[in-house]
Write a structure and sequence with these properties.
It holds the Pfam family Peripla_BP_4. This is Sugar ABC transporter substrate-binding protein. Belongs to the bacterial solute-binding protein 2 family. It is found in: Cell envelope. The protein is α/β, with parallel strands linked by helices and 313 residues long. The chain is built from twelve helices and twelve strands. A six-stranded parallel beta sheet has the order 2-1-3-4-5-11, with helices on both faces. It has a six-stranded mixed beta sheet with strand order 7-6-8-9-10-12, with helices on both faces. The two termini are 42 Å apart.
Length: 313
């Protein structure tokens, strides 16, 4: 009896093939559409994609990954997935209102949806099963506190995507945690030269800025270069990781990175959709499944750097 009570769903003494057990039975192959707002070549979203495709390979799930930074075209990708009658949809919501109708239509069509990364506050109301990501305002607040503890008093928060609610939440959170002066700077991540130029110009205009908070690894690298070009003493911190950021933390050019473990944001929803299809399981109890924030600095960067180089952190 004890052995039977402790056995998991895959244990050999289970009798789920007998009538009357109430167990959900899988039918056919599961195909999941992962639709993000990532832009081409964005290292962050490459890690999300790696997580989703790795989960698919391990679980025997077909994963179709598509992305588009334009909210209208992202909505069209969702509509296309619905018309193709996929078994599940995973979608990031940088601009929730633009995706609302498409997500609700997917739910009406009987397709389970899990949201990731952004828009967690709208996820349940749109009918999604769960949200996987971090609370952006909380992460921003913690980053602001760390910069305050480092003795910084004037912060430049760099927003690299217009209309991305999560990025604004990060800066608002940083403002709450930092306590000093915080100024937002809007740049376009699709124009790296202009990103560096704008940050450099802001630091030259106001030499009293002693900290820059980037919200993306590519912007972090541009921020480091901009500070050097402006001969500024501003420290740089960032959200998210890649190998360039881990190298910069090692060298001292970046103080820390806020790690939301985006590999999990690709991996976990595929697992969750498989469990839902096969066993009617849900995860989170209506609350977000949090993947962050964690922090990477000189104390732990060596270990994390190994995984960043292989594309899983």
């Amino acid at each position: 009896m004890l052995l039977a009570a402790c056995s998991g769903p895959g244990a050999s003494n289970q009798t789920t093939d007998q009538p009357g057990t109430g167990a959900a039975q899988p039918s056919g192959d599961l195909r999941v559409a992962v639709i993000s707002h990532g832009t081409a070549g964005d290292a962050f979203w490459n890690v999300v994609k790696n997580g989703a495709t790795d989960a698919g390979k391990q679980l025997g799930v077909t994963v179709d990954y598509n992305s588009d930074g334009d909210p209208g075209r992202q909505a069209t990708l969702i509509d296309n997935a619905v018309s193709q009658k996929v078994g599940g949809i995973v979608v990031s919501m940088a601009n929730p209102d633009a995706l609302k109708t498409s997500i609700e239509n997917a739910v009406k069509a009987g397709i389970p949806v899990i949201t990731i990364n952004s828009g967690g506050d709208k996820s349940a109301s749109f009918g999604a099963l769960a949200h996987v990501g971090q609370e952006e305002s909380v992460a921003g607040e913690e980053a602001g506190r760390k910069l305050k503890a480092a003795g910084k008093t004037k912060l430049l928060c760099v927003i690299h995507e217009a209309g991305n609610v999560g990025l604004n939440q990060r800066c608002d959170g940083a403002r709450a945690g930092f306590g000093g002066t915080v100024t937002n700077l809007q740049v376009d991540i699709n124009n790296p030269t202009d990103v560096e130029s704008r940050i450099k110009g802001a630091l030259q205009t106001d030499p009293s800025v002693d900290a820059v908070l980037a919200l993306n690894p590519q912007v972090a690298v541009s921020s480091v270069n901009a500070a050097k070009g402006a001969s500024a003493k501003a420290a740089v911190a960032t959200f998210d990781l890649n190998s360039d950021v881990t190298d910069a933390i090692k060298s001292g050019a970046v103080l820390f990175a806020v790690d939301q473990q985006q590999y999990e944001q690709g991996y976990l929803p595929v697992v969750m959709l498989k469990l839902y299809r096969d066993n009617a399981n849900t995860v989170g109890g209506g609350k977000p499944v949090l993947t962050g924030p964690g922090f990477v600095d000189k104390s732990n960067v060596d270990k994390v750097a190994e995984y960043a180089k292989r594309g899983t952190r």
